Amino acid sequence: MNPVKVVVTRIKGPWVMSADPDNRRQHVQGFSLVELLIVNALALSLLAALFAATAELISAATVSSALGDQGVRARQVIHFIERAVATARMPAEWSMGDTAALTDPGWQTPSPICTPPETGSPSERWGGIDVIEMIDLPCIAKGDATWGLYIEQIQECPQDCGGEAGYVISPVPCSGTAPGITGKTLWQVVWQANMNRPPHCDTGWPWGRLQRLLLTDRSGGASIEGVPTLRFQSVSRESAYTWQQAETLVAGIAAWQPRMTPTPVSQKALDGVDTATAQLLTVGMSVIPAHDARGLGDLHITRLLLPPRAAANG
Questions:
Q1: Between 249 and 238, whose confidence is greater?
Q2: Which of 42, 6, 44 lies closest to 25 in space, CA to CA?
Q3: Which of 46, 56, 169, 188 is the most buried (most CB within 10 A)?
Q4: Planar angle of CA 146, 151, 152, nearest 5 degrees
């Protein structure tokens, strides 16, 4: 048997390796070491550019996600406040004949925050909004909050009241074959174990729930989360009138500044209202970025909130 020889030769053409029993030479060609080094350098340059572009995309996505998170938290706060203040007035059906209640372009001042509503005399109008300075309030536990947004809500029963215990508001009197509600009707507030129709109210007469809310802020050093938070609390009445412990509404809310602003209104907007100014609510706050969004600034929000009927009347 003849030995097999493998011949590798570089000439013009591709590299070819083959066994040639007849000792015929096959001509092959490949890349030199210099060429391979150049190709490797180009490949590394392309990879470096790709990694840099990827890093920029990741950074942009992180910033976009952080901005979106700030926007979501801001909307949560504003949405909560808008829903709360939407019922900070007597329902329109209860205010028939009360021109001031229907056309007042500003917010009404609620009953005192530390006074149990059942101790007060029956009133023509309940509900309202006020900004409370959180200094030595006897009914609120001390904290580091400076300002509180106090909201007194009126919710119609039975559809919007729920079933748990609470303060029930009803007209005086609340009996007869047909409800005689006018702008001069007085409304009383009592505590009930549930939101069923008050015993003294006949069928067809309106009643509702009176509820009080308080929104306050807490610094990052005092909060469990380690960041500034916006908190809310409501009234409880087990053995006595008390405000429940505050709960976190949204974390990362700083520079909390609600304020009531007296604003002149036109005579057309007044429509019979005696006052020449309206108390409007402005809410200011900042939403801090998440911990992983370093270098991103706070999102500053200021929102003017108008009473529903004032907005409808233009």
A1: 249
A2: 6
A3: 169
A4: 140
